[in-house]
Amino acid sequence: MSEHIDAKRLLIPQLGPLYGFFGQYSYAFMRICTGAILIPHGVGKMFSDAPWQTAPMERMGLWPPLLWAMLVAGTEFFGAIFLTIGLFTRFAAAVVMIEMFVIAYFINGPKGFLWTRGGYEYPLLWGLLCLAILFRGGGRLSVDQYLPKEL
Predict the structure, then answer these.
(1) Which ranges in 55-137 belong to alpha helices (H)?
(2) Cα dihedral value 55, 94, 116, 105, nearest 10
(3) Which residue of 31, 114, 142, 150 is most buried, as measured by CB atoms within 10 A?
(4) Residue ranges of the domains in the chain?
(5) Is 148 helix (H, G, I), strand (E, B) or coil?
(6) CA-CA distance, 146 to 83, in Å (whole number)?
(7) Is residue 83 within 8 Å of 34, Cβ to Cβ?
(8) Chain segment 60-104, per-residue pLDDT in tens
(9) Angle at the Cα of 23 from the Cα atoms of 18 and 29, rounded to 5 degrees
């Protein structure tokens, strides 16, 4: 899935081979970074002093709140790890995407767009990145490429 770099269109044509080489790994880089940046959020929810925060679930009316808190913690921890290594990538991207869209709309949505006020653009960005990963799959440098079938 590599695209040809037209050196005549580049301001510095000598960079064409460099762009061509690293361009083939740019999607894998995006997928790995998306998962890796989300892992600390999952670690915090799984292994902190109060790992099963049920108050947000209770405010949203989700019952039983402990089950939903465990689902969120597991999604952010395992889903982010799976995105990073590219294992069951489409499934991991789908569950993380759904969680991020729910967070963006229900938790951060009322605060507006600006992150300085706890706005929704950060979870929205992660949700949209996961949507792109969902459509593309694991790709290069993923464990999925060694599996016989992919979701």
Answers:
(1) 55-59, 65-74, 80-85, 89-102, 121-136
(2) -60
(3) 31
(4) 31-146
(5) coil
(6) 15
(7) yes
(8) 888 888 888 889 899 999 999 999 999 999 999 999 999 999 999
(9) 120
